[in-house]
Amino acid sequence: MTQLSEQEIIRREKLQELQNSGIDAYPAAAYPVNNTSVHIKTHYSEATKDQFQEVCLAGRIMSIRDMGKACFAVIQDHAGRIQAYIRRDEICPGEDKTLYDNVWKKLTDIGDIIGVKGYAFITKTGETSIHVKELSMLSKALRPLPIVKEKEGETFDAVTDPEFKYRQRYADLIINPQVKDVFVKRTRIYQTIREFYNNLGFLEVETPVLQPIPGGATARPFVTHHNALDIPLYLRIANELYLKRLIVGGFEGVYEFAKDFRNEGMDRTHNPEFTVMEMYVAYKDYEWMMRTTETLLEKVALALHGTTQVQVGEKVIDFKAPFRRVTMYDAIREHTGIDISGMEEDALRDACKQLGIHVEPNMGKGKLVDEIFGEKCEAHYIQPTFIIDYPVEMSPLTKKHRSKPGLVERFELMVNGKEIANAYTELNDPLDQRLRFEEQVKLMERGDDEAMYIDYDFLRALEYGMPPTSGIGIGMDRLTMLMTNQPSIQDVLFFPQMKPEKL
């Protein structure tokens, strides 16, 4: 067991004193909150003061300034912070001053959650505050908050240690309230996308997280075991094949915000658990999807910032539609000087060697092209750019290009040097799809542990007939990073994956 610090021991002793004096430090009854810090500070004035004569607010004590028989405390609720003025004779109008002298001054700490009732007023220094008439202990904090130094409303010693921030997000949110804004904006991004697709008449759906076959992407899955059925199951790496089944079933357009899982490395843009929005719509192609996607992201930027220009680090990225379009082969030719169109596997290996790119023997043609683009091209695309028309070997679920042999109708959206969306004109030929799956099996036999499995039920669904369809997946974590100017995926996840804590 972890050794208690001196502060933790003292707080436990204070809790015992509260209990001994008959005060429940964790009362069960609802507390009748009727206002928030931000609402009071925004709307209180001389003209409206009659509306703020009986305010009831609850929150966490963030600081205390003691002046003997009176004090000021800063209380933080879910909306923000407000100052409370507490006078001994106001909260203890009778002879018994225990509530102030003992409970408040001796047994209450920064971090405790309290409730206050009173009226709003403006101090001599011009700060809107609450004059407290009644005070209640709602939750005694047994662990002290990290100290954050502030002066004149400006934080200049916030806790920035990533180990602390990501492992103890609950404490990070308390002491760094600006962190909450990132997650509020994340929710607004989701709401904007939902509204956009709902207005197009599409249906939000749910598909299985536990799947018998990890299909819809090339990735290493997490595997588990179902005891009752005595079968292995996989955490989904994508929801694509299930959403396409729904298009077969007759839905015009479906979308899902899906938690996906990939048993791969972790870095500032990868977490093993992540969120992807996937959308599929019948009778459309990747050209329609490009136009729709650039319109969607323009709306997201405007909803969050009121402008299409978004600050990302030292760069300004403009999501104003339309976005630039570059073919995969043209991108590689531009940034390497090598024309790989028409190259077979051996020639691609030679090109990788010439470019100093390390590749594995089990990599097929598609993986080799992907390595070249990832190593030499991807980082150059800062402004939103559609990379289009991929080699067929890279895209086993994509329809062959209508006019370019050897290619498929696929795009990836690159922003700030990273892919944030992947989309196709979907392959709906069941015979071609079977051949593509069989090619993936050959790669698996060569040792590629990210190659796709054959999903025979999906092939059966295609044989019933899937209409011409376009689909897209948008990485919600990366999109949130861009739209909120955060450098790491851990900054846009409440609880990112961490190594086991050493206690």
From TrEMBL:
Binds 3 Mg(2+) ions per subunit. InterPro entries: Aa-tRNA-synt_II, aa-tRNA-synth_II, aa-tRNA-synth_II/BPL/LPL, Lys-tRNA-ligase_II, Lys-tRNA-ligase_II_N, Lys-tRNA-synth_II_C, NA-bd_OB-fold, NA-bd_OB_tRNA. Homodimer. One of its GO terms (cellular component) is cytosol. Its EC number is 6.1.1.6. The keyword Lipoprotein does not apply. It comes from the Bacteria. Residues 186-500 form the Aminoacyl-transfer RNA synthetases class-II family profile domain. Mg(2+) 2 binds at E419. It comes from Chitinophaga japonensis (Flexibacter japonensis). PANTHER family: LYSINE--TRNA LIGASE, CHLOROPLASTIC_MITOCHONDRIAL (PTHR42918:SF15), LYSYL-TRNA SYNTHETASE (PTHR42918). Keywords: Aminoacyl-tRNA synthetase, ATP-binding, Cytoplasm, Ligase, Magnesium, Metal-binding, Nucleotide-binding, Protein biosynthesis. NCBIfam families: lysS_bact (TIGR00499), PRK00484.1 (NF001756). GO terms for molecular function: ATP binding; lysine-tRNA ligase activity; magnesium ion binding; tRNA binding. Coiled coil: none annotated. It holds the Pfam family tRNA_anti-codon. Mg(2+) 1 binds at E412, E419. Belongs to the class-II aminoacyl-tRNA synthetase family. This is Lysine--tRNA ligase. One of its GO terms (biological process) is lysyl-tRNA aminoacylation. It is found in: Cytoplasm. The keyword Transmembrane helix does not apply.
